[in-house]
Specification:
It is a single chain. The protein has three domains: 87 residues, Pseudouridine synthase; 139 residues, 2-Layer Sandwich (Pseudouridine synthase); 62 residues, PUA domain (Archaeosine Trna-guanine Transglycosylase, Chain: A, domain 4). It is 20% helix and 33% strand. It is built from seven helices and 18 strands. The strands form four sheets. Strands 1, 2, 3, 4, 7, 10, 11, 12 and 13 form a nine-stranded mixed β-sheet that branches. The longest helix is centred in the first third of the chain and has 12 residues. Pfam families: TruB-C_2, TruB_C_2, TruB_N. It is an enzyme of class 5 (isomerase). Keywords: Isomerase, tRNA processing.
Length: 313
């Protein structure tokens, strides 16, 4: 059976995102599968996989905000900024002195647009080479800071009695945010070295962790013929974009990848913005870009799905 849509996966520890894709290709007997954002092998949680024609929407799903639950440990640091690396600085146990109020205020101060320097152990490319490749060669190079958005950040729990105090927090952030680096920066703001000791992606766009399936569950559902109902139509993940409905004739032209006039009486966003286009029966056609100068909608990604907005989740 060929599936189309977004499969919500709960990635286990020990798998790269590519490992998950490779396994699902074998299990589902499909080649056309793509993931929507890399998770490090030790990180668990939400990893949406695009199946079939939904792979055309990977880049748009990647842009959606992500939510994480993380734990950081104050008092030592590693070369990878997480618990898998080599220790490069360590305070004596019991020599970290922080108050709950100080920690909560510091975390709250990171809300908004911040700058991050990508870690050396990352997939960011410099001069055509990935930083982690240079790091494995023992090289460290200067990296440019990048702006990222922290939409929400809140403290979930504190263990200030531990030899190295632990802080658990939840963060909602933009694409490209390194939570490892955020942990290090929080520690620096508190006056101590810090390291990320746990990370779970709890949400990607509208997909929450409680909606995701383990690899074993997916395999069993596929084997029993019960997987299709849990696959999410691709357009359900783009509800942040405005929608428009076109006539039957316009829908036919749109499915052929042609530009079409603005639908009558529709209020559309500014030029360059994307809209979700539907046919008169609720069939999702694809994403179209507003061209106000020509008063046209230009095809960006045509899906031409037979699925309807009225189909069950």
């Amino acid at each position: 059976m060929i599936y189309e849509g977004v499969l919500p996966v709960n990635k286990p520890a020990g798998f790269t995102s590519h490992d998950v894709v490779a396994k699902m290709r074998r299990v589902l007997g499909m080649k056309r599968i793509g993931h929507t954002g890399t998770l490090d092998p030790q990180v668990t949680g939400v990893l949406p996989l695009c199946l079939g024609r939904a792979t055309r929407f990977v880049e748009y799903i990647q842009e959606l905000p992500k939510q994480y639950e993380a734990e950081l440990c104050i008092g030592y640091s590693t070369d990878t900024e997480d618990w898998t690396g080599e220790t490069i600085e360590r305070h004596q146990p019991g020599q970290v002195f922080l108050t709950e109020d100080e920690i909560r205020r510091t975390l709250a101060s990171f809300a908004g647009t911040i700058e991050q320097v990508p870690p050396m152990y990352s997939a960011v490319k410099v001069g055509g080479k990935k930083l982690y490749e240079l790091a494995r060669e023992g090289k460290e190079i200067e990296r440019k800071a990048r702006k990222v958005d922290i939409y929400e950040i809140e403290t979930l729990g504190l263990d200030l009695q531990a030899e190295y105090p632990k802080i658990r927090f939840r963060v909602l952030c933009s694409k490209g945010t390194y939570i490892r680096t955020l942990c290090v920066d929080i520690g620096r703001a508190l006056g101590y070295p810090a390291v990320m000791t746990d990370l779970v992606r709890s949400r990607a766009g509208s997909i929450s962790l409680d909606r995701c399936l383990s690899l074993e569950q997916i395999e069993e559902l596929h084997r029993s013929g019960s997987l299709a109902p849990v696959i999410i139509p691709a357009d359900r993940l783009a509800t942040h974009l405005p929608e428009c409905t076109v006539t039957e004739e316009e829908a036919i032209h749109a499915m052929q990848g042609k530009t079409i006039p603005f639908p009558a009486s529709r209020v559309l966003p500014e030029a360059g913005h994307l809209v979700r286009m539907y046919g008169p029966q609720g069939t999702f056609i694809g994403l179209f870009q507003v061209d106000r100068e020509r008063e046209m909608l230009r095809p960006e990604k045509v899906f031409a799905s037979s699925g309807s907005r009225n189909d069950a989740d």
